[in-house]
Design brief:
It contains 16 helices and two strands. It has 460 residues and is mainly α. It has one domain. The protein has a two-stranded antiparallel sheet. Helix 2 runs antiparallel to helix 3, helix 4 packs antiparallel against helix 13 and helix 6 crosses helix 9. It is globular. Keywords: Membrane, Transmembrane, Transmembrane helix. It is found in: Membrane.
Length: 460
């Protein structure tokens, strides 16, 4: 009975949507619940899907969204890739396990994938909520970063300390891991590697907000705070990424920053050509060197880093042949044969291929790489406007590239999945509606106008 508290966000979201509107419930209930509460606690319903905190809220917001006639929604081709991916994963699990075992995954595909995509696509850009969405993400994950210091210092996850008593027997597999003699902060995101991905999103959105001048010079609740709030938020989210001690996420953040730097340049095409040239000149020899480094086998590794790289290399050697035994639909969520000593698949692409086959993998890559390429093309076609760094195209492209790199070292689970689908919905609506880079910067526009006495506007 205690697990029924997971339904409270759903009740709150529906009541608030009824009193205000669906945008309000999406931004001020569902989004903070997703970012602040763990996704591994479920309300158990015998014979029915078992919702998590954020899934319960998502169901309520989706109901309000449908009752109001799907405000802001406009169909696009990308919708087919989202529906196709969710359908393939659901069919795969149904074939492997039957409905009773597959229902939770089907439910997750709907309310942690399809619906977050539709809500973000329909309620952010069409209603001018671009900055508000990003601010709530940043503030929520900045709060998580601060609380994660408890886990870093004590080796105890404060979320588990609070919620384990309400959900007996749940979440026990998500233990705090250690590196360099320090606890790796996972917070409400289950594992430090997943927390690292979430903090990349927070940091990149915060830098975009900071460069766009979206924050006030002082927070009303903290008027005594030295320096501007934007600086503190950037440091806090960067610190949140650092204390995950996730080397894969650190590397992904640096690589993603390269694309963001293109958006800060006045000469974007030249900068993009430089980045691509550097990737070819440096990337190919680096890849060859890495393969030589990783292919020595764990028994011949000289240190922990090489052993980790060798393990991930061995995963591909072991499991590609197993995946090819069930190429179309995969083996299902847990049915794939385990290779002794290599039970943990620390590569989302390989894991997706094993679990759900080539068809689901193709749809996923269409969403990930397809959206990344389209964002770059969209950004390159637009003239530089606003302050340097205010390009939403390149900020989102940088996040997508970071996702692409990071999930090669970890599965895309827990909150990283609905966050990915929300970003995809936001990006799709932004490109579909051809929203200008500066369309939602009212506060920033006023602040810049006050700071610069004479401004000229170029109209083509």
């Amino acid at each position: 009975m205690l697990s029924y508290i997971a339904l409270l966000p759903g009740i709150a979201a529906f009541l608030i949507a009824t009193r205000h509107d669906v945008q309000y419930a999406f931004l001020r209930v569902y989004l903070p619940v997703l970012l602040l509460l763990p996704d591994y606690y479920r309300c158990i319903f015998p014979g029915l899907p078992d919702p998590t905190f954020n899934q319960a809220a998502c169901v309520a917001v989706a109901a309000s969204f449908a009752m109001n006639g799907f405000p802001g929604y406009r169909f696009s081709l990308n919708d087919l890739w989202v529906f196709g991916y969710a359908l393939c994963v659901s069919i795969s699990e149904y074939r492997a396990s039957g409905y009773s075992d597959a229902q939770n995954l089907m439910f997750a595909m709907l309310f942690s994938g399809v619906v977050p995509y539709l809500l973000a696509k329909s309620l952010i850009e069409p209603f001018g909520n671009r900055f508000l969405f990003a601010k709530i993400c940043v503030l929520s994950m900045a709060a998580v970063s601060i609380l994660n210091l408890v886990e870093l210092r004590l080796g105890m996850n404060p979320w588990r300390f609070v919620f384990d008593r309400f959900f007996p027997g749940q979440g026990l597999e998500w233990v705090t891991t250690f590196r360099f003699g320090l606890a790796r902060a996972g917070g409400p995101y289950a594992h430090a590697l997943l927390a690292g991905i979430m903090m990349i999103v927070a940091f990149r959105l915060q830098r975009w907000l900071q460069w766009s001048g979206a924050w006030p010079d002082k927070f009303g609740l903290l008027p005594w705070l030295p320096y501007k709030p934007a600086l503190w938020l950037s440091l806090t989210t960067a610190g949140g990424l650092f204390i995950t001690l996730a080397k894969g996420s650190w590397l992904a953040s640096f690589i993603g920053a390269g694309l963001v730097a293109v958006g800060r340049s006045k000469y974007r095409r030249a900068a993009m050509a430089t980045i691509l040239g550097g990737m070819i000149i440096v990337g190919i020899p680096a890849l060859i060197a890495f393969l030589d480094y990783a292919s020595v086998g764990r028994e011949n590794a000289k240190d922990e880093n090489q052993e980790t790289a060798a393990y991930r290399y061995e995963l591909i050697e072991h499991y590609v042949d197993i995946a090819n035994q069930q190429p179309l639909w995969g083996w299902g969520l847990t049915k794939w044969p385990k290779v002794p000593g290599a039970e943990s698949i620390d590569n989302h692409y390989l894991l997706l291929l094993l679990m759900h086959g080539y068809l689901a993998s193709v749809f996923f890559l269409l969403l990930l790489l397809g959206t990344l390429v389209r964002l770059l093309i969209h950004g390159l076609r637009q003239p530089p406007t606003g302050p340097p760094g205010s390009s939403l195209s390149f900020t989102l492209a940088g996040i997508y590239l970071a996702y692409f790199v990071a999930i090669a070292t970890v599965f895309m689970g827990q909150q990283t999945m609905p966050m990915f689908f929300m970003l995809t919905g936001w990006a799709e609506s932004y490109m579909q509606r051809r929203s200008p880079e500066w369309s939602d910067a009212g506060e920033a526009e006023r602040r810049l106008g006050a700071a610069v006495p004479f401004r000229f506007r170029r109209v083509l």
